[in-house]
Structures are given as structure tokens and as C-alpha cells.
Design a protein that fits this description.
Elements (H helix, E strand, L loop, with lengths): L3 E5 L5 H12 L2 E4 H10 L3 H11 L6 H13 L7 E4 L5 H13 L6 E6 L2 H15 L6 H15 L2 H8 L2 E5 H4 L2 H15 L2
Parallel strand pairs: 1-3, 1-4, 2-3, 4-5
The chain binds adenosine monophosphate.
Length: about 190
């Protein structure tokens, strides 16, 4: 399977769709947000550094994220394809990912962009706050995360388009999780034919 980069704003469903794709195709799954939350829970040095950034809705510095990503990637079984969920979030991270994969004889694969309007995103994140109790899912931090997304992450969409690997899926067209998944699965299968 080709590697997959799941791309989208906070609340766009990156984690949910990554889980479904990983299950269906037996792929590896790296969620950088989950890695950081587990480091925080375990009280590690990395967790202590990450906490301040996450609570403020800011991004963790690129070099730190790149090192974490490479070690996670190398710990997964080779050859099944990996889903990158929440990484890259900056152009520097994207360039580093491309280089890291090339050094291992692999490539970026395909990028899947989830397009969801901000009203829907806010509603979902506030609902998730009640269910999961994530510290960064409060309205003030969510607004900061949207701002960071627009300024630092969203421009990367064009970077992927220039690489010729961007595939977009629009919630307002697919309308349901099942509809989104069906469209995504079809596209993945087309790419891997
Ligand atoms: P997520 O679960 O993907 O929404 O990530 C939660 C938080 O973890 C983000 O708001 C960032 O503070 C941090 N984070 C996760 N992935 C990255 C990344 N690739 N680069 C920088 N910070 C990240």
C-alpha cells in the first residue's frame, strides 16, 4: 500500500478516518497528537515540553516533531504503508518527511485532504470536549488552533498539489461519515491499482 497523509483542520476527522483506513487495509498509523498526549500522560521530558504548546493551541517546534516522527516510522513494520495523521503541519515538516522517506527508499504516497466548514468544525470540537475531555478542546484554544491551521498548515495544501498527490474530500458534498469513507476508499483503491 502507498503511504497516506491525512490532512485537514482540527475536528475534520483525521483520527476517525485514519483508524478506519488502517483497519481496512492493515496499514500502520502514526498520530503525532496521540504520541504527544501519551508522553504528557506518562510525565516524560518530551511530554513536559509538549504540554505548554498544546495547551496554548501552538505547534511543537519542527525539529522535535521531525525526530519523533522518524523514530515512530522506524518502529513500524515495513511494507504495509503508513498513515500520517496530524503530520506534516508546516512546510519544513513536509520537506523533512519527503527526505526521511526518500532516505529509506520510500515516497509520500497520497495526500487526503478533508474539507469541512468552520461552523461544523467548532460544533464537533465542542461536542468532543464533553465526551473526551481533551484539555485543548475549549473554545478559546480551538480558535487559536484554527488560526495556527490557517497561517501555518493550510498553505501546505498547495505544496501537496504541486507534488501531484493531493486528493480532496468535501464534507458538504459527501454529507455523512459513511459517504466520506466510501469516497476515500474508492480513491485509495484506484491509487493502489
Ligand atoms: P492533534 O491531535 O493532531 O489535533 O494535535 C494536538 C496538538 O498536538 C496540536 O494542536 C499541536 O499542539 C500538537 N501537534 C500534533 N502534531 C503536531 C505536528 N505535526 N507539529 C506540531 N505540533 C503538533
Amino acid at each position: 500500500m502507498k503511504n497516506i497523509i491525512i490532512f485537514g483542520a482540527p475536528g475534520s476527522g483525521k483520527g476517525t478516518y485514519s483508524d478506519e483506513i488502517a483497519k481496512r487495509y492493515g496499514m500502520g498509523h502514526i498520530s503525532t497528537g496521540d504520541v504527544l498526549r501519551s508522553e504528557i500522560k506518562n510525565g516524560t521530558e518530551l511530554g513536559k515540553i509538549a504540554q505548554g504548546y498544546i495547551d496554548n493551541g501552538q505547534l511543537i517546534p519542527d525539529q522535535l516533531m521531525i525526530d519523533i516522527l522518524a523514530s515512530q516510522y522506524d518502529s513500524l513494520p515495513q511494507g504495509k504503508g503508513v498513515i500520517f495523521d496530524g503530520f506534516p503541519r508546516t512546510t519544513a515538516q513536509a520537506e523533512a518527511l519527503k527526505k526521511m522517506l526518500a532516505e529509506r527508499g520510500h515516497d509520500l504516497g497520497m495526500m487526503i485532504e478533508l474539507i469541512v466548514s468552520e461552523d461544523v468544525l467548532m460544533e464537533r470540537l465542542l461536542r468532543r470536549a464533553q465526551i473526551e475531555g481533551r484539555a485543548d478542546d475549549n473554545e478559546e484554544t480551538i480558535r487559536k488552533r484554527f488560526a495556527v491551521y490557517h497561517s501555518q498548515t493550510e498553505p501546505l495544501s498547495k505544496w501537496f498539489a504541486a507534488e501531484g498527490i493531493r486528493h480532496t474530500f468535501d464534507w458538504s458534498i459527501c454529507k455523512t461519515k459513511e459517504g466520506m469513507l466510501e469516497a476515500i476508499f474508492q480513491e485509495i483503491e484506484k491509487e493502489n491499482r
